[in-house]
Amino acid sequence: MNKTVFISGCGRGLGFCVLQRHLSMGDRIFAQDYRITDELQTLADAHPEQITVTACDIGSTESVEAACKAFFKQANQIDLLYNIAGIYRFEDKVPLRETNMDTFLDMYNINAVGALRVCKGLWDAFHPGSVIINISSEAGSVGASERKQEYAYCMSKAAMNMGAKILSNELAERQVKVVNLHPGWMRTVMGGALAAQMTDLSVSPEKSAEDIVAIALDAPNFPDNITYMEHTRKPLPW
Predict the structure, then answer these.
(1) Which residues have a Cβ under 8 Å from the Cβ of 2 and sit 6 or more positions away?
(2) What is the pLDDT of residue 1?
(3) What's the start-to-end Cα distance of the chain, in Å?
(4) What is the pLDDT of residue 201?
């Protein structure tokens, strides 16, 4: 059965690859990004019966509410929600004494609060068997943390994980599964130039998307209401 899919952050990279996989499956996709890229618009124009594109800034409550309102004009249930939109700043790869604290709130607003904004806006669309996929990071794991920099990014992803855990508690009775995923060190703009060079340690967005979509489809059968893992299905410590 074809699924109804909502994706934030699918203008390029991982989100665009997730969109392409669901397109190939014949699913109905509601694609969001803060800026509609030419690639996304071209794909949507070629498949108007499957893809609806809406500009959505997950850092803005007003923008998210407008995108969700547009969704409810065309559908009333969501099978798969992918919270992929997020930000990373390479200038944060510095020790504490060089860290700009004034950027922290923007990082939190998008990476931690953004996914919850989307979930709140789509609350009435969740049904038993719905799956929420949050693209988190191993950087958000307190138990596995060995980094000595990137304070804002790591802390924002840890906050995202906590938000997802509370969300899963609230949604447990509705039989909605939540999965927080580390997509791998991807060969994308966010992954940086080094990821493109170190192909033995990095992963293409196409491969990561393949793994993530497979997890999303399997998630209704997961024993726990929330799971935190790598795209390879290796569990991550909270």
Answers:
(1) 25, 26, 27, 28
(2) 78
(3) 34
(4) 54
**How buried is 66 (Cβ within 10 angstroms: 0-12 exposed, 13-18 middle, 19+ buried)?**
middle
Q: What is the pLDDT of residue 5?
A: 99
Task: Annotate the chain with DSSP letters as a single string.
Answer: ---EEEEES-SSHHHHHHHHHHHHTT-EEEEEESS--HHHHHHHHH-TTTEEEEE--TT-HHHHHHHHHHHHTT-S--SEEEE------GGG-S-GGG--GGGHHHHIIIIIHHHHHHHHHTGGG--TT-EEEEE--GGG-STT---SS-HHHHHHHHHHHHHHHHHHHHHGGGT-EEEEEE--SBSSTTT-HHHHH-TTT-B-HHHHHHHHHHHHHHGGG-SSSEEEEETT--B---
Burial of 102 (0-12, 13-18, 19+ CB in 10 A): exposed
Q: Quick check: 46 pLDDT over 60?
A: yes
